[in-house]
Amino acid sequence: MKLDHPDEFREKKFMNELQSISPIHHRNLVHMIGYYKEGKHRMLVFEFMRGGSVSSFIFGHPKMAPWTWRAKATISIARGLEYLHYGCTFPIIHCNIKPSNILPDHKMNPMITNFGIAKLLSDQ
């Protein structure tokens, strides 16, 4: 994720994503490798996912996503969401789960990405 023209809203979105995903690690979440913040430049660096998005498989090449894979993918995505909700110090609600935010890894295991509008919940 690259932020070209930071303003107050974009800076808040960038910091929210950084804060929400830097401490989490799960087999069904795309891992953040690091970040860059200098002057007006902002970047989050994630592991490379060469498989495109689940959206491209389901809508572009439906034969590449048979129903058995779709069922397994659904369970994997649910496990990733369960970790976000119950396995993190502060529960995280993704708020934007959709096929284009699910990226298969090199073994076709789905990984959740794009935490741009995630909500951090604390006990209040």
Could you write a compact summary of the structure shown?
The protein contains three helices and seven strands.
Provide key terms for this protein:
Transferase(Phosphotransferase), domain 1; 124 residues; 7 strands; alpha+beta; globular; Protein kinase domain-containing protein; 20% strand; two-stranded antiparallel ribbon; 3 helices; three-stranded antiparallel beta sheet; Prot_kinase_dom; lectin
Structural class of the helices, strands and pairings? alpha+beta
Q: What is the helical fraction, as a range of percent?
A: 25-40%
Q: Could you give the order of the helices and strands?
A: EHEEHHEEEE
Poorly predicted ranges: none
Shape: globular
* Content of β-strand: 15-25%
Rg of Cα set: 15 Å
The biggest sheet amounts to: 3 strands, antiparallel
* Head-to-tail CA distance between termini: 31 Å
Number of helices in the DSSP assignment: 3
Descriptive account of the structure:
22% of the residues are buried. The termini are far apart. This protein has one domain: Transferase(Phosphotransferase) domain 1 (Transferase(Phosphotransferase), domain 1, Orthogonal Bundle), CATH 1.10.510. The strands form three sheets. It has a three-stranded antiparallel sheet with strand order 1-3-2, covered by helices on one side. Strands 4-7 form a two-stranded antiparallel ribbon. Strands 5-6 form a two-stranded antiparallel sheet. It is globular, with a radius of gyration of 15 Å. It contains three helices and seven strands. It is an alpha+beta fold and 124 residues long. The model has no long low-confidence stretch (mean pLDDT 82). Helices cover 34% and strands 20% of the residues.
